[in-house]
Amino acid sequence: MILTRAWLPAAPSAIRRVVGFSSRHCGCVIVVAVALCAGAFFYSARHIAIDTDTAKLIAADVPWRQREIAFDAAFPQRADLIVVVIDAMTPELAERATAMLTARLQDERPIFRAVWRPDGGPFFDREGLLLQDTAEVARTTQALIAAQPLLGTIAADPSLRGVMDALARLIEGVSAEPARSDELVPALDRLAAALEEVAAGRPASLSWGELITGRSPELRDRRRFILVNPVLDYSALRPGEAASEAIRQAARDLDVGTETETNKPRVRVRLTGPVPLADEEFATLADGAALHAAIMIGALLALLWAALRSWRLIAAVMSSLAAGLIVTAAFGLALFGSLNLISVAFAVLFVGLGVDFGIQFCVCYRAKRHVTNDLQLALRSAGEEVGPALALAAGSIAAGFLAFLPTEYRGVSELGAIAGSGMVVAFVATITLLPALIVPLRPPGERAAVGYPALAPLDRFLVSRRSLVLALSAIVAAASLALLPRLTFDFNPLHLKSPQAESVATLLDLMQDSTTTPNTLDVLAPSVADAQAMAQRLEQLPEVDHAITLATFVPDLQQEKLGLIDDAALLLDPVLHPDRIASPPTDSETAAAMASAAQSLEHFAVAHPDLTASTAAARLARAVRTLAQAEPALRERAKAMLVPGLGTALNQLRAAMQARPVTVADLPDDLVLDWVARDGRARIEVFPRGETNDNATLERFVAAVRQLAPEATGAPVSIQESSRTIVRAFAEAGALALFAIILLLAFALRSVRDILLALAPLLLSGLVTMAICAAIDLPLNFENIIALPLLAGIGVAFSIYFVMAWRAGRSGLLQSSLTRAVIFSALTTATAFGSLWLSHHPGTSSMGKLLALSLASTLVCVLLLLPAILGEPRQRH
């Protein structure tokens, strides 16, 4: 049905006049373009800025973002954290390294706003036993009392000599009571194994807590944390790079997390948290970017050569493209002041889509140049023929981008504004600067027709067998619709990060333990008492593992536990605080003590061959004697393995024996500051039950907690709400874009039938693309979903080219120069976007993969379906 009249006849002639003016006055056009580009370049160079604050990618007035901002205002030290994870071979090594590193970082005030330990410090050293259950306190105090003789000797002489003397006395005591010897077997074996490693030159460790209590330390016992709130530089690609490097340098200076003789450190320091995760993601994006860009440019030039067969035309297209890119960049910076992490991608989009206009114009010019050898006439004729289609395609693509402006996804809305404006710039450059550049370059004439005559049989088949083609298309559409329910949306941003990055690997490691997972929720209550009451209610939910408040650090059953500790302290206090501490021994004194201890162990093994402990004693005797007779360097290694941890263990025992009753008022200020805001509101941290990196688990966890605490915030809420915000933004933008494109097509085509013809291949290619994603298990995510509006813009552009040619009365579309232009345009666009597939960043790679699939689907649908739908060309008016 014709709405009014056919395509406005003024448009072709107007574009013809613009192209003619530009080609006749090419010098003036080039000078103006150079001046404009120079101004834009210098403006961009002076104002270039990339805002890497990922929090700004979502509009701040979204309700869940407002709650997130309010929580950060209440606890500013918890925003933008670096989490330092210290893992060691023993708890003593972990504690010593963490204490040293914390003290060092707290001196770096210009770089860090706050540095604190959430799980350690003087308070936990003193009250740590009280925070355990009563049965564990009883076991620990009994073991300490039993180890009183050993503790007394090493406390008076905390050196390798003292350890050997204590070992000799222990063996002599057991010799008098052989029945007790079995109790020593685990300790003797552990000490022997450690000393054997030292003698062999391998890294070794020994937990004094394990020797004394007999309980093997778990991973959480050997892990410590430091929380760092750094000063960030959002003008840098990696805002926290300086802070992270300062932490690593401090660890190197303190020799924490390094081991010179082996690649396996005794203490391992890793960084994770929001800041390192973002920084390493940027690093992953940049990794190999130069190589990928070089590959893309090389492939782009090769495809341009295949399409245009003239380096002069290629030079004109690339120059026009560069000029448009510079002007678009300056426009974006002037409009927003800086680029964000998403809008910076306008450059790739401009190249991928802008090159399409250049190819369309130049291929059409080549076809006209074959007919006439007059360069000026060929340029004007090309402008007249392809110009209206380019204008309509540019408008459609720009409408698709600009539809993001009113959405809450600020990152993409800014990208839409810049990229949409860039399409207008690209069109203007194509009909002005490009012909102006071609004239002085004077490419040679065309000897052969530009097109694919071999496709004439396919042209005839598609037109004569329209019913068959349409039926097959309907079958493909139905099959695609059947696969769509299998298409998923992965809202977990962690799945878009490289698992090889230290921050991601560390985060995944922490998720294995329900007490250290970062996927927790924060709830604010009016007071500490209200927080405790809410925590108890939350812990009743089956989706919740446990909840922590400030009151959690006030131990229960204190009187009973303090009684056990006081009894132990009565016996251990004189032992742990000797009147005199021996001076450090010389190496010869240490060797003598080791030889004496070895002799005592050997005598015990000979005297009691029938005892189980004799085998362990003999093994330990060999290890000790080997070190006693070895070079001093090996004894120094044994000292480095045993003595520092011994000092840490003794200090922890002394502190633990000073435990006293604890109330909320007795809690240290740094701990209170982490749980109570300055206005008195108290924080509740809620931990999920189950697999904490599973999307379904997190969905159930968030839904359950928000039934009791609708204002809950935290990583799981941010992940889910941001996914909803982004999906909603794309749905709104998609609807707006489709509406705008239909209006634009209605204005230009003035025919409902022609509008449907232009949209049909787009709808089918969209269905096919989504079906392929479902079939190959490629879920949509925050990054690759950006491919969908690009698919709409490119698909509409290709359809418009064919519909406009058909309306002009052209037949044999597949064998024409238009098909050549569309194919190479698709290939060059696929090269620009498909290069993202090579990225080491999983999210970017998935975007490149989806873009490549969508382009392939679009090209096939346009080339095979559209000619069959169009049929024979209508009579040209």
Protein topology:
Layout: H1 10-24, H2 26-47, E1 50-51, H3 63-74, E2 82-88, H4 91-106, E3 112-116, H5 122-127, H6 134-146, H7 148-156, H8 160-176, H9 185-199, H10 208-213, E4 223-230, H11 241-253, E5 267-272, H12 274-286, H13 289-308, H14 311-336, E6 339-340, H15 346-371, H16 375-402, H17 410-431, H18 433-441, H19 456-464, H20 466-483, H21 502-510, E7 521-525, H22 528-538, E8 544-548, H23 558-576, H24 587-607, H25 612-628, H26 632-656, H27 669-675, E9 682-688, H28 695-708, E10 713-714, H29 715-749, H30 752-775, H31 787-807, H32 817-834, H33 842-870
Parallel strand pairs: 1-6
Antiparallel strand pairs: 2-4, 2-5, 3-4, 7-9, 7-10, 8-9
Helix pairs in contact: 1-2, 1-16, 1-18, 2-14, 2-18, 4-26, 6-23, 7-8, 7-23, 8-24, 9-25, 13-32, 14-15, 14-17, 14-18, 15-16, 15-17, 15-32, 16-17, 16-29, 16-31, 19-33, 20-30, 20-33, 24-25, 29-31, 30-31, 30-33, 31-33, 32-33
Describe this structure in words.
The protein has 877 residues and is mainly alpha-helical. Among the domains are: 10-55 and 289-492 and 721-870, Multidrug efflux transporter AcrB transmembrane fold; 66-71 and 513-554 and 667-719, Alpha-Beta Plaits. The protein has 33 helices and ten strands. The strands form three sheets. A four-stranded antiparallel sheet has the order 3-4-2-5. It has a four-stranded antiparallel sheet with strand order 8-9-7-10. Helix 1 (10-24) packs across helix 16 and helix 31 (787-807) packs parallel to helix 33. The longest helix is centred in the last third of the chain and has 35 residues, at 715-749. Mean pLDDT is 84; it is low at 1-8 and 258-264.
